[in-house]
Amino acid sequence: MSSLSTTGVVRHLYRKIQHGQPMQESVPGTAITCVAGLGIVEDAHANRLSPRQILITSEAELEELGIPPGALRENMVIAVQDPALLRPGSAILTSGGVEIALTMYCEACARIRSVIPDLKRMFHRRGVLGRIVAGGVLAPGDGLSLVAAKYPSWPDSPLSRFHQFVSMIPPGRVLRYRDVAIGMGVADSFVRAMPGYIRRSVGHGLPLHRIVTATGALPHIVPMQEQLLAAEGVVRRVPDLPGVQSVDLLTYLWQGEPNNH
């Protein structure tokens, strides 16, 4: 663990109950619950596969940008003595026992253009995403420590993230294109690029045969995919259509692990 650390306090907390709805702030005296490996209870981004279960911003950064808390759709605003340590690879440990591994910077996107029209100003300034490593209760006013370089940060390149995440898929399990996009921490639009990522990655020693389509069909991009899955005990479902090979998602779809980070 790095010796670099700083202390601070939780200023604001927010949850998004459903996608497309506004953030809801926790008022002083109330708390939100975090579950290890899953995220914030009743938050739309809670997902065991995702490296972006929580978005954290610095109070000092918001003040410098002239943005009110919550405007960037963050889940947590913190005030710390050294805001520069709020970066991928750092860890946040709160007085309520919650530990967050910071994974990557949150990219500026069209969703915040009404707040910051010039998105170029927001490069690495929208906040930092993270995974819940240890669960517990978060409340406004909680003390915290921010520890640098405790965890590996996720790569910036989507292809490198693809390689990193696919290497985590366990034997005997499969993921759909959409699940892989979630695990990479990228937008849903990347689903269309998945066949291309798979083709570019053949020969890199990755378990690409564990990736299937939305219906569980084998995309026939990876050589000997059916044989490789069979060797791991994945039983092919009798297809509804001649020539279409698929697996039973109810049995073999990987849901992620509680402490996968």
- Briefly note the CATH topology name of the largest domain: M1 Pyruvate Kinase, Domain 3
Q: Spans of 5+ residues with little confidence (pLDDT < 50)? A: none
For the biggest β-sheet, the strand order reads 1-6-5-9-8-7-11
- The overall pLDDT, averaged over residues, is 89
What summary fits the major beta sheet?
7 strands, mixed, barrel
CATH class of the largest domain: Mainly Beta
CATH superfamily of the largest domain: PK beta-barrel domain-like
Inertia-based shape: elongated
Helix content: 10-25%
Strand content: 15-25%
Order of helices and strands: EEEEEHEEEEEEHEHHEHEEH
CATH architecture of the largest domain: Beta Barrel
Overall tally of domains: 2
Structural class: alpha+beta
Number of helical elements: 6
Taking the alpha carbons of the first and last residues, their distance comes to 16 Å
Number of strands: 15
Report what the structure shows.
The chain has helices spanning 59-65, 158-166, 177-184, 194-201, 225-231, 249-252; strands spanning 5-15, 24-25, 32-35, 39-40, 54-58, 76-80, 91-94, 99-105, 128-134, 136-138, 143-147, 175-176, 211-212, 236-237, 246-247. It has 261 residues and is of the alpha+beta class. The chain folds into two domains: 5-147, PK beta-barrel domain-like (M1 Pyruvate Kinase, Domain 3, Beta Barrel); 158-252, Winged helix-like DNA-binding domain superfamily/Winged helix DNA-binding domain (Arc Repressor Mutant, subunit A, Orthogonal Bundle), CATH 1.10.10.10. Strands 1-6-5-9-8-7-11 form a seven-stranded mixed barrel. The longest helix is centred in the middle third of the chain and has 9 residues, at 158-166. The two termini are 16 Å apart. The mean pLDDT is 89. InterPro entries: MethylDNA_cys_MeTrfase_DNA-bd (IPR014048), MethylDNA_cys_MeTrfase_DNAb (IPR036217), MoCF_Sase_C (IPR005302), Pyrv_Knase-like_insert_dom_sf (IPR011037), WH-like_DNA-bd_sf (IPR036388). This is MOSC domain-containing protein. It comes from Zemynaea arenosa.
